[in-house]
């Protein structure tokens, strides 16, 4: 069972836990993106297992009134086994989800995976005329050109600052430079996209910028934040009428995800310590 210390960031171990969490969050006007924890499988078996688990989850989502979609990681669906394995498993899943009107996000991992992830996304987005989204990372120098190519592709694009420690030869390492790149990407997207923009950030400055760009260009957007991070802001933004999505991971492999959240910010570490000492 998931210990209470982890339940701020993880929506439980089972799909039933995750759906119950989604229902509670839906009641506050926030939609949910469910991610089954798991990544970097170097054998086909576990990747197939996760693909099957996602197909079951899609089936459940299609048969409930829960307002949720799913988000997968390429290395969870076989990318470390081979590009063809990933393409096969994700295509099968997206076809299955499209038939049931369930949206599928594809997370972006580190830079050696960018090309294949974008290629597969573009093929699936064109095949289904949307129904699928991909994440792009402002810390990579290549992203501006990628986003220009994505402007004509159906589907959604999630803009994030980037979670991976990339080489200085291809990435901005300075936080202020990453922020500047993020602002420039949003400015480009609100001007050139027809909609389908997801602002995947907890940064109040970036969310305010998105609101201003929406007022200026009228382009539709949604705000995405992680479960357990600025939860009150998620509910407040939804109450203001913005389209807010909470990314909620679930599953048995929660420990490394939980520690990543705790390590990335002092407040999260203090929260974890307080939970341990029971205060
Ligand atoms: P930061 O630059 O970390 O912080 C800026 C400001 O935001 C802070 O000064 C503070 O005001 C506020 N803030 C940030 N965190 C907190 C907190 N814990 N509590 C209170 N205030 C806070 N990365 C990938 O590489 N690939 C992905 O597929 C991917 N998917 C993501 C999906 C979602 C929905 C989200 C929200 C993030 C995703 N990320 C992904 C992670 C992303 O790249 C960043 O590492 C992460 O979001 C931190 O950047 P930030 O924009 O939130 O703000």
TrEMBL record:
Keywords: FAD, Flavoprotein, Nucleotide-binding, Oxidoreductase, Proline metabolism. Its cofactor is FAD. InterPro entries: FAD-linked_oxidoreductase-like, PRODH_bac_arc, Proline_DH_dom, Proline_oxidase. SUPFAM superfamilies: FAD-linked oxidoreductase (SSF51730). Signal peptide: none annotated. Pathway: Amino-acid degradation; L-proline degradation into L-glutamate; L-glutamate from L-proline: step 1/2. It is an enzyme of class 1 (oxidoreductase). Its EC number is 1.5.5.2. It catalyses: L-proline + a quinone = (S)-1-pyrroline-5-carboxylate + a quinol + H(+). The keyword Protein biosynthesis does not apply. GO terms for biological process: L-proline catabolic process to L-glutamate. Transmembrane segments: none annotated. GO terms for molecular function: nucleotide binding; proline dehydrogenase activity. Residues 18-269 form the Proline dehydrogenase domain. This is proline dehydrogenase. It comes from Halovivax ruber (strain DSM 18193 / JCM 13892 / XH-70).
């Amino acid at each position: 069972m998931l210990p209470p210390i982890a339940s701020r960031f993880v929506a439980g171990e089972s799909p039933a836990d995750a759906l119950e969490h989604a229902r509670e969050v839906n009641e506050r006007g926030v939609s949910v993106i469910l991610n089954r924890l798991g990544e970097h499988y170097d054998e086909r078996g576990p990747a197939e297992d996760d693909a099957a688990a996602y197909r079951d989850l899609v089936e459940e989502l299609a048969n409930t009134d829960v307002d949720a979609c799913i988000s997968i990681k390429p290395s969870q669906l076989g990318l470390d086994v081979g590009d063809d394995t990933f393409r096969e498993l994700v295509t099968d899943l997206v076809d299955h989800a499209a038939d049931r009107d369930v949206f599928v996000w594809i997370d972006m991992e580190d830079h050696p995976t960018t090309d294949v992830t974008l290629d597969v996304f573009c093929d699936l987005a064109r095949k289904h005329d949307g129904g699928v989204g991909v994440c792009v990372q402002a810390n990579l120098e290549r992203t501006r050109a990628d986003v220009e190519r994505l402007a004509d592709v159906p589907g959604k694009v999630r803009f994030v600052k980037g979670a991976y420690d990339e080489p200085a030869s291809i990435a901005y390492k300075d936080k202020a430079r990453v922020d500047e790149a993020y602002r420039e990407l949003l400015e480009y997207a609100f001007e050139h996209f027809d909609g389908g923009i997801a602002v995947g950030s907890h940064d109040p400055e970036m969310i305010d910028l998105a609101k201003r760009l929406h007022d200026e260009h009228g382009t539709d957007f949604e705000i995405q934040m992680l479960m357990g991070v600025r939860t009150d802001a998620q509910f407040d933004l939804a109450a203001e009428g913005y389209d807010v999505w909470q990314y909620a991971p679930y599953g048995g492999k929660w420990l490394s995800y939980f520690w990543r959240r705790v390590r990335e910010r002092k407040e999260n570490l203090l929260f974890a310590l307080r939970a341990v000492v029971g205060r």
